[in-house]
Amino acid sequence: MPVCHKILLLLWLLHFSSVYSDITDGNAEHLKREHSLIKPYQGVGSSPSSQWDFWGSTLVTSQYVRLTPDERSKQGSIWNTVPCYLKDWEMHVQFKIHGSGKKNLHGDGFAMWYTKERLHPGPVFGNQDHFVGLAIFVDTFRNDLQGMDRSFPYISAMVNNGSLPYEHGKDGRSTELGGCSVEVRNKEHDTYLAIRYSKGRLTIMVDVDDQNDWKECVDIGGVRLPTGYYFGASAATGDLSDNHDIISMKMYQLMVEHTLEEDSQDWTKIEPSVSLLKSPKDNIDDPTGNFRSSPLTGWKVFLLLLCALLGIVVCAVVGAVVFQKRQERNKRFY
To answer: Per the record, a Pfam family (predicted)?
Structure first.
């Protein structure tokens, strides 16, 4: 095998191993039950000992937690009452979106939250706007008729320090960190979403094709999230509707080593932010933000490395040709 092919193969393997080895296999030893929602949903309710509380149209059964029924103008949410102090974590969500609406006649979707406050109803998939923390949106209805470059349902991520609104009319484009189009409605099999945060990196994976295989949706570095926030899920319907069901939410602690400097800082005082790339506020003529508008995903990193490698190869070939011609020219003088 030529050297160039070996280098390309190595880069390819490094890219996929860095992505797919990240998602945990669900080691029960690292399952944090105080942050997990599992059948038969014990500990859900309004009692002082409850670990989960719910609001609105949410219905808790023995088989699922239905955030909204397939009815118009409904909102519901469920929230963990225990703040999470894990620095590195991974949440596996089994969900089901289904309803009687045909293509493009359903909505609106659901969201996963890791935020400073909980149980604050509002216009963002049943939760408050200008939130502080992390949101993962599973948006099933297109509002921006100009944005035809993507299909719906669409999964996206947003980090907010409370200063940014979520723009429903533009499907959150101005504050989106990254996303992917995934068909998740009316599936006969289980559908899963994995959210991982570790050492400043946010990774979102999906398993929706009944292949027992995680696929990358978002992979972003430079993300800063504090500890002490709450996990939750919410959903909303409007003129169109769907059943939005949460089957389980399983939280895993990731065993990651940190530097002494990282361990010594007060993680509860960190302000949610994303660095490295330009701010999405640049898209709305406000250069003061510190959030980025597009992700440097694993694919982009791979393409950058590939372009750099091709550049090196081209330079080497050109250099060899020039050197050979100079050698031939020098021979003519002897």
So the answer is: Lectin_leg-like
Which of 230, 44, 42 lies closest to 119, judged by CA? 230
Angle ∠(311,315,317) on CA atoms, nearest 5: 115
Q: What is the pLDDT of residues 202-237, one digit of tens each?
A: 999 999 999 999 999 999 999 999 999 999 999 999
Predicted confidence (pLDDT) per residue in 65-79, tens digit: 999 999 999 999 999
- Ordered by start, the domain boundaries in the chain are 30-274
| Integer Rg of the chain from CA | 23
Q: Which residues contact 188 (CB under 8 A, 6 or more apart)?
A: none
The number of beta carbons lying within 10 Å of the beta carbon of residue 202 is 23
Task: Return d(Cα 310, Cα 326) in angstroms, integer.
Answer: 24
CATH of 30-274, one of 3.30.70.2200, 3.40.640.10, 2.60.120.200, 1.20.120.530: 2.60.120.200
pTM value is 0.77
Q: From CA 54, how far away is CA 33, in angstroms rounded?
A: 18
